[in-house]
Design brief:
single chain; 71% helix; mainly alpha; 4 helices
Length: 99
């Protein structure tokens, strides 16, 4: 039996694998389509594009918390930090939807 923890880990893995691909070669429709499929198991019907927008809002929250002059978008560690933050926030959002 699949648990919510396993599904959250699968969602994180899907997002991590997407971020491993060069930005211009990423297939966000496929990524968020897979996530939409996972969420359907919980009765959550979300359009993949809406999920992508939700994820962008999670990422925006990271950048909103840092003054723009401190953004280091060419620094891989900074970019990784923003991705990890967004993934954690997205997971929180999923938990809120499920519970």
């Amino acid at each position: 039996m699949i648990t919510i923890r396993q599904d959250l880990d699968n969602i994180s893995d899907i997002l991590h694998k997407t971020f491993e691909i060069e930005p211009f070669k990423r297939n966000y429709d496929e990524t968020f389509g897979k996530i939409a499929g996972i969420l359907r198991r919980y009765g959550i019907e979300e359009n993949p594009r809406n999920l992508r927008f939700r994820f962008i809002l999670c990422m925006q929250e990271f950048f909103d918390g840092i003054p723009q002059e401190q953004w280091r978008v060419k620094d891989p560690a900074f970019v990784k930090q923003s991705e990890e933050f967004a993934i954690a926030k997205f997971r929180q959002w999923v938990i809120e939807q499920v519970t």
